[in-house]
Backbone:
């Protein structure tokens, strides 16, 4: 039997009509974030990137807090309590503007705020989470060290018990928001007698704490990146996370941030693909738009397919996270696949734009450079490959 249907509109950025799988509420969240990005970020981000600074970071944090984006997937304490899919869609739109802006939100909400929300004392939660949710306080997350990235268990930062106080000494590296933060969640080795790796809530005004800005970056230039220096930083006993011990604490925070990257990387990919698609229709060579040539269409089709598959994977993992939660290896599947595919899309888009592909008049080279950082932070491709390998074989191959 033949059934006649009204012609469906083709959406070039969503040929598979993934939007049909989203609720009206989820679409509203996405549109709200996109509106903020178009007004507050997109007109300025290329200039910020070229200058290598984010001069309005505090004002921007407050704007993002006003619309409920900071810690939006957390419950209580002034947080919006939205779903994992809502948060993922927000990350996608933020990173379509710039990876550095998504990093600002991810570090605030999924690392610093989540760490306090999941592992902090009630006193720590009450003191910090409400003002972080509004953007009145900015947080950072200190785990990576100059000589210890993929192997955080070997960290050199130490926490020494001194009476009722704790004294922290050490250095952390590549810390987003570090030099503008009001509070840092810092992980330090307290020694076996005190549970090994422990988390501390460190007000950045504490004597001995400093955060020099890292300069000369060619990636994530529209983002504040710093070193944290802890020189005999004395904290009260109430500064420590009371229960969590070992790497369970920091790794749980990293998994939250990695989940946002699964979505965010598809935002960068979408932006690069859209730019290449539009350019292919406007750029004329040999008497016709370059989008009319088979080689260009092959590139566009491949980019479209990878964007579709990556977005479907992000949505599946988001639905699963909301329903039953995600295992670490499932998060690794998403980050390993989506970031690598997003880089491929950006590089292919660059070839379609030709020489214009390296100009900041277009977003492509900015996204490509940013994704080189996204590829290795929150777990390198090698580490995520080994996490998947361990899930498949039952054998840990890290050492």
Residues:
């Amino acid at each position: 039997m033949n059934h006649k249907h009204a012609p469906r509109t083709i959406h070039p950025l969503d040929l598979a009509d993934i939007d049909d799988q989203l609720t009206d509420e989820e679409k509203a969240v996405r549109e709200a974030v996109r509106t903020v990005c178009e007004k507050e970020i997109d007109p300025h981000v290329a200039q910020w990137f070229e200058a290598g600074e984010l001069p309005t970071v505090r004002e921007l944090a407050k704007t993002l807090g006003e619309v409920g984006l900071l810690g939006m997937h957390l419950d209580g304490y002034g947080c919006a309590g939205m779903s994992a899919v809502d948060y993922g869609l927000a990350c996608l739109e933020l990173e379509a503007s710039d990876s550095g802006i998504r990093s600002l939100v991810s570090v605030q909400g999924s690392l610093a705020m989540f760490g306090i929300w999941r592992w902090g004392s009630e006193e720590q939660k009450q003191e910090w989470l409400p003002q972080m949710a509004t953007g009145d306080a900015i947080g950072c997350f200190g785990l990576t060290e100059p000589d210890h990235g993929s192997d955080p268990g070997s960290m050199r930062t130490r926490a020494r018990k001194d009476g009722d106080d704790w004294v922290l000494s050490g250095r952390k590296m590549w810390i987003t928001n570090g030099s503008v933060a009001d509070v840092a969640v810092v992980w330090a080795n307290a020694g076996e007698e005190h549970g090994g790796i422990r988390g501390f809530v460190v007000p950045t005004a504490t004597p001995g704490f400093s955060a020099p800005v890292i300069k000369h970056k060619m990636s994530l230039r529209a983002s504040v990146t710093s070193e944290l220096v802890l020189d005999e930083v004395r904290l009260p006993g109430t500064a420590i996370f009371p229960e969590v011990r070992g790497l369970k604490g920091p790794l749980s925070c990293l998994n939250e941030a990695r989940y946002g990257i699964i979505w965010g990387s598809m935002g960068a990919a979408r932006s690069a693909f859209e730019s290449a698609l539009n350019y292919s229709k406007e750029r004329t060579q040999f008497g016709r738009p370059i989008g009319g040539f088979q080689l260009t269409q092959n590139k566009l089709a491949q980019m479209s397919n990878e964007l579709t598959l990556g977005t479907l994977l992000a949505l599946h993992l988001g639905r699963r996270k909301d329903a039953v939660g995600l295992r670490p290896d499932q998060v690794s599947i998403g980050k390993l696949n989506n970031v690598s595919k997003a880089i491929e899309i950006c590089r292919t888009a660059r070839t379609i734009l030709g020489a214009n592909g390296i100009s900041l008049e277009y977003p492509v080279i900015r996204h490509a450079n940013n994704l080189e950082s996204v590829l290795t932070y929150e777990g390198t491709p090698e580490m995520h490959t080994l996490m998947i390998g361990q899930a498949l074989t039952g054998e840990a191959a890290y050492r």
